[in-house]
Specification:
Length: about 190
């Protein structure tokens, strides 16, 4: 059984979880940008009003330009920071959600009695320890299943030998047939 590392081609694995992370990061950036704009507006607004007594027309015009430039610079910085945050959050969640996706798929395979399944994570993924523990668990289950199968073969062989014994009563033969049926269910 070869263990080729699994390679995901899509960054969006569990869109709901990743969207919540990205939405939270973008909301934080938006709120910080708005707080920054309001703080600048509040700080510079008082100074501009005090100076406007001497040169009202010039200051009022400057205030409109200053307010607009602050707004534009904050919007541009929020867009840039949002794009960077979205990339970083998407990349970080990909390293967590991807392995969780693999665990989910492997659990489904193991639930269908496919013990050849194993967790293959990339070296840069998170949850490496959990992946190793999961693989060890599957190896132990596989070993236990092989041992049980060998025991079932041995029990069947002995049951067949007992069935051919001439000294068996009808009750004993029925009990052996019932045991054979039960062993087949294993």
């Amino acid at each position: 059984m070869s263990r080729v590392p699994f390679k995901r081609s899509s960054m969006f694995i569990n869109k709901a979880i990743q969207a919540r992370f990205i939405g939270g990061a973008l909301l934080m950036i938006l709120l910080s940008g708005l707080c920054s704009a309001l703080l600048i507006f509040w700080i510079t607004g008082g100074d501009l009003q005090a100076q406007s007594q001497s040169a009202h027309a010039n200051i009022a015009n400057s205030w409109e330009r200053l307010g607009l430039s602050i707004l534009i610079s904050n919007v541009v910085s929020m867009i840039i920071a949002g794009a960077i945050a979205m990339y970083v959050v998407l990349h970080a969640t990909h390293k967590i959600v991807g392995p969780l996706y693999r665990f989910e798929k492997n659990c489904q395979q193991i639930g269908e009695d496919n013990l050849d399944a194993y967790v293959s994570l990339r070296e840069t993924d998170q949850l490496q320890g959990l992946g190793l523990a999961f693989t060890n668990m599957v190896d132990k289950l596989r070993t236990r299943k092989r041992t049980q199968q060998a025991l079932v073969v041995k029990i069947n062989t002995q049951l067949e030998q007992l069935k051919h014994d001439q000294d068996l009563t009808e009750h004993q033969l029925n009990a052996l047939n019932e045991l054979t049926r039960l062993v087949k269910q294993l």
